[in-house]
Design goal:
With 431 residues, the chain is of the alpha+beta class. It has helices spanning 36-39, 61-75, 169-183, 223-226, 240-251, 261-276, 319-324, 327-339, 343-356, 419-428; strands at 13-15, 19-21, 30-33, 44-51, 82-85, 91-95, 100-107, 144-150, 156-163, 231-238, 284-292, 310-318, 365-370, 388-391, 399-405, 410-418.
Length: 431
């Protein structure tokens, strides 16, 4: 960050006392079931939404957002509860109505002085999301934490800490947009469907697939040593013409008839990251990514399903094969991973967790998370759409994030790598 005279300065955020926001009306109490698709991704996802306004425009922001949150929590009442462990040893929500944490804060500068909020920066952007003091694990953190930070320019930032076990990207977007509609005095467009028992494991379980997304890979390339270097975070913008060129490159040898932007871009960054990490030719490497299963379940999940409707699928091959063969080979692996996701596959994954309680292994793995189809930028609390929205940090070193950028359908690719690997990766991005 730089101040007005060009010298480096530090973002200072003065936080007020945290308060609890409870639903505006009495809501249902008791234990709330989380499906097996919710169990494996119990991590706090921190995001920010930056809003511009006139000089005094942010004075009402805290009050407006707090009162709207009280009302929207009537519909999303599990977010006012607390996570606990069920008799079966799984995560479950105690709907005790304790409330979401809400904090108002003030920054020492203008929004423009924060610097580049388009790439993850846990140190600077982390100050815009309230960190629950003394919380040692996710059971000691509320499912929802909100901080409204006012800036000297009149703008403000809404910083959210939300537990991924409560919803996937689409569910989170629907919640935040419903909160915005409530703040503007409008009825909620998409009412949440709360019953997650529709994704209960079968009895007896039927595991019909190998589910290699959970497979442990031996790190024969000793990447642990490489990751001792300082991590560097970068954002790479793929504009529409670059994305079309990637698709052309994937199709030029005639092996594939067609491919999507996601398939081409995923294959491209998987190969580039594999090379940047200097994986040995015989090293097994895995690509993991989430597929939205809402429409693929039979019957499809109801509109507004409040929970994780995504399932992880995977591609697995040797690093030498991935790099030595044309881009079409990697794209083909991605396409097979997408094609395998059917109702039967997803219910098999649910049953697999029921039996094994296994979590996906991330050794020698790239996990791609796609937000490029999520319209967080449409969120409006009464101050217009955010000028910028995105994550504060990447949850794991193996994660790459695809974010939509601008209105011309560009995609920002966000990732972190050890310094020496990032140098190689940057060179490979020159397409």
């Amino acid at each position: 960050m730089e101040n007005c005279n060009g010298t480096a300065s530090e973002l200072i955020v003065k936080q007020g006392e945290p308060t609890l926001v409870v639903p505006a009306e009495e809501t249902q109490k008791g234990l709330y079931f989380l499906s097996n698709l919710d169990q494996n991704i119990a991590v706090i996802v921190r995001t920010i939404y930056c809003f511009r306004s006139d000089k005094e425009g942010n004075e009402r922001a805290g009050k407006v957002l707090r009162e709207a949150l009280e009302k929207v929590l009537i519909h999303y009442h599990p977010l006012a509860g607390r996570l606990t462990i069920s008799a079966e040893g799984k995560l479950i929500v105690d709907c005790n109505g304790e409330g979401a944490i809400f904090v108002e804060a003030e920054a020492n500068c203008t929004l423009d002085e924060i610097g580049d909020t388009a790439k993850p920066d846990p140190v600077t952007l982390g100050k815009l999301v309230y960190d629950v003091p003394g919380a040692r694990n996710i059971l000691e953190m509320p499912p929802l934490v909100a901080q409204v930070t006012k800036f000297k320019c009149g703008g403000f930032v809404l910083g959210l800490g939300m537990n991924h076990c409560m919803f996937d990207g689409l569910g989170a977007m629907e919640f935040v947009n419903s909160w915005g509609e409530t703040a503007r005095g409008l009825p909620i467009t998409v009412k949440p469907f709360l019953d997650r028992s529709i994704l209960k494991a079968r009895n007896p379980p039927k595991i019909r697939y190998p589910h290699r997304e959970f497979a442990e890979i031996e790190d024969t390339s000793n990447t642990k040593e490489l990751y001792k270097e300082e991590m560097q975070y970068r954002s790479f913008c793929f504009e529409p013409d670059m994305l079309q060129n990637l698709k052309k490159k994937a199709l030029e040898d005639g092996v594939l008839e067609k491919c999507s932007v996601f398939e081409a871009l995923s294959a491209f960054v998987w190969r580039a990251r594999t090379k940047a990490l200097s994986l040995q030719p015989e090293q097994q490497t895995k690509l993991l990514f989430a597929v939205d299963g809402r429409a693929k379940f039979n019957p499809p999940l109801p509109t507004g399903y409040f929970g994780n409707g995504i399932v992880l699928t995977n591609s697995l091959c040797q690093a030498g094969e991935l790099q030595g063969k044309p881009l079409s080979f990697a794209v083909g692996l991605v396409q097979k991973a997408i094609k395998i996701v059917t109702d039967d596959y997803m219910r098999s994954a649910i049953d697999y967790f029921e039996v094994t309680r296994a979590g996906p292994s991330l050794a020698c793995t790239l996990l791609i998370t796609t937000w490029s189809r999520l319209s967080f930028h449409t969120t409006d609390f009464g101050w217009g759409e955010p000028v910028l929205s995105g994550p504060v940090a990447l949850p794991e070193k193996e994660v790459i994030l695809f974010l939509s950028h601008g209105k011309e359908r560009s995609i920002n690719v966000l990732l972190g790598l050890p310094g020496s690997a990032m140098t190689i990766f940057q060179e490979l991005m020159q397409i």
